[in-house]
Amino acid sequence: MSAAANPILRTRGLTVRFDSIPVVRDVDLSIADGELRVIIGANGAGKSTLLDLLCGRVLPSDGEIWLRDRNITGIGEAAIARSGIGRKFQTPSVFKEMTVLENLQVASNRQVRVFENIFARLSGKPSEKEEAVAARTGLLGVMRHRASELSHGQLQWLELAMVLSQDPQIILLDEPAAGMTADETDKTAELLLDLAGSHTVLVIEHDMAFVRTICRTITVLHQGAILAEGTAQEIEHHPAVIEAYLGSATLSHA
Amino acid sequence: MKYRIVSAAAYIAFFALIFLLPLFLNGFWVNRVAIYLVYSICAVAISMSWGYAGVLNLGQGLFFGIGAYMLAMSLTLALPENNPVPELMLLNMEPDAVRDLCCVTPGSFLWIPFRSLAVGMIAAIVVPIVLAAALGFVMFKRRTAGVYVSIITLAFALIGQLLIINNQPLTGGFNGLANLALLDIAGLEFDPYGPSVYYLVAVTLLVVILIARYLLSGRIGQILKAIREDEARARYLGYDVENYKLFIFCLSAGVAGLAGMLFTVTAEFASPSLMATSFSISMVIWAATGGRASLLGAAIGALIVNFVGSLASESAAFQPVWPIILGGLFIFVVLVMPNGLAGICKGLIERWRKRDAAREEAYP
Question: Which H or E element spans position A8?
Fold first, then answer.
């Protein structure tokens, strides 16, 4: 386990069982500040469940999750989001009947309590921050469009833009390039590399080609447990990984 | 921009019509339309919770009925013949009971605060809100959502109705409270068949719509819409969805209570039928017909459906089948125009806007 010097997110013995079958087993994860980490693994390896655990969608059967020096295990999705974890789902989940600008306004509003919002007015124009996020994700031209009018790639970027607007300490991305055209995939990879450094990002990915373009450190998940951790090269030549995937060729196309 | 102008014009036209209407109506119709305007307030309350936040309360009649009863209790006691003890209690008391509100029938002491009219009026709004807060807290904290909220609220309205029917010595039972004084505030008497009650209701409707519009066009409205669209996404953005639902549920209940109070003033009775399932569902039909996502649309929907209903009830042929027509209307609205009349208007305006935009592109 490569223990980061200054971990922003740490899990200890994270385990979840569905009907007593362990789906995530004893995972000790440590993500450093500003790191871009990719988690790979076959279908059913527990990748998405791991993200679900981190953002509170699923409660762990065992183990703890720490964000810096705060134990965020079981405090609820909204509280976890407020403490600084932003989650992007595999199928884009945005507010479809609202405009791009409205989506960003809901996301960038960091006063989330009911009583802070009762008399708060809305601006019809994007704030500087909303404009910057939209520019970064290539959405400036469609600010007034309804989300339901966007292409699939734009929806993915909108959700990413919303997560960025939250000012999260760490961003969890579930297959950000899923369903994208080659062109859109390249743009997404660029975007992720651009984010790395200024943000801590944890990505789940399937597509090894995509992983190679963006990746620094890879964590391999196998049957719910961490199998290996290292650079792309190390992972592709790791004997246990090769065995688990029946050869590196399979891994390349996984 | 264009949409805003059309929308403002619609508001002005509607309220101009409402405020001028009594000039052309006799006392009977002034009273009728006043009651329909009360129903409009109910539809606005439904629109607030269902249209904006997706919380479909099928037991709104509970809050409406409580509002009606709270004021009706005060107006019962405002009649000299109902003192020291209302007639309904004399009819139901044990022969040897003390003839005083404290103990004439079991629970009759609950009426004591209602000797004050102010208590009745305040309770008509506060009690529904408090009850909604308690019910909503239990419901939403357990993440009850969607159709389950509708079923639970429906059940609670039925419980309320049964409690009132089964406690005749305290509530007047099935007959309700019908022997009421006129509302009299500081010497100003409100006549249900005259302009005073009509304008009381119309102004209340205007104020309710303006306040609701002010709130819902702000940030809280945007967040509620977001919750309606995708509850989970709102949660992962850090919003405590439950608290927002609770807020709009209580606000809607308070408005329903206010409407109930005005119903007592206008119709001069409060009865358990106000808590009947069919009445709660009627409110939803009014809002759906007019357009649940539009406050003004919901208000207009209530007026239209009730006006047509009253015409139907005067014809011997239509009267028995009116509930069937109403049910058919609901199915029609849900299938063909899910956003109601307001939705159709919005669609038309949108089409004009797009045509204008296309024309500008073609001939810049």
Answer: strand A7-18
Domain coordinates of chain A in residue numbers?
1-84+171-254, 95-167
Nearest Cα of chain B lies from the Cα of A183 at a distance, in angstroms, of 27
Q: Does residue A166 sit at the B interface (CB-CB below 8 Å)?
A: yes
For residue A31, the model assigns a pLDDT of 93
Range in A79-93, A175-189, B10-24 with the lowest mean pLDDT: A175-189
Eight-state DSSP code of residue B177: B
Q: Does A122 touch chain B (CB under 8 A)?
A: yes
Partner-chain contact B220 A117, CB within 8 Å: yes
Residue A130 in tokens: 């909303």
Q: B73: closest CA among B351, B106, B36, B65?
A: B65
In chain B, the number of structural domains is 1
Domain A1-84+171-254 class?
Answer: alpha beta
Kindly provide the ipTM of the predicted complex, given to two decimals: 0.90
Phi and psi at A225, nearest 5°, equal: -120, 160
Token pair belonging to A152:
């699939």
B225 touches chain A (CB under 8 A): yes
Q: Which residues of B touch A119 (CB under 8 A)?
A: 215, 218
Residue A156 forms contact with B (CB below 8 Å): no
Query: Residue A51, Cα to own-chain centre: how many angstroms?
Result: 7
CA distance B49 to chain A (A): 15
Domain coverage including residue B67: 2-362
**What is the model's pTM?**
0.92
State residue A197's pLDDT score.
74
Cα angle, residue A69 at apex, residues A65 and A75 outer, rounded to 5°: 45
**Domain containing B213 — which CATH number?**
1.10.3470
Model pLDDT, residue B329: 87
